[in-house]
Amino acid sequence: MSCGALRTTSSVSVAPYPRDSDSALALLLRVDEALDAARRAMTFSVSALAERMAELFKPSSAFRG
Questions:
Q1: I need a labelling partner for 17 at 20 to 30 A (CA). Which of 25, 30, 40, 52 fits?
Q2: How many CB atoms within 10 Å of residue 39?
Q3: Largest CA distance in the chain
Q4: Region for residue 19 given its phi and psi (left: phi exceeds 0; alpha: psi -120 to 50; beta: otherwise)
């Protein structure tokens, strides 16, 4: 039984302990809030980035033999 494609994403966050919180649970909650805010503020697409990088680094005709 085919269910189709599964799309996944990943996120990384850094929060200094104990500056941002005094307990592990509170620190994780602060990190989760920060990640949610970042997701709302910006959508990041790896495929869009790859396409843009390919455009930026495409060899110009001046360098082709």
A1: 40
A2: 12
A3: 62
A4: alpha
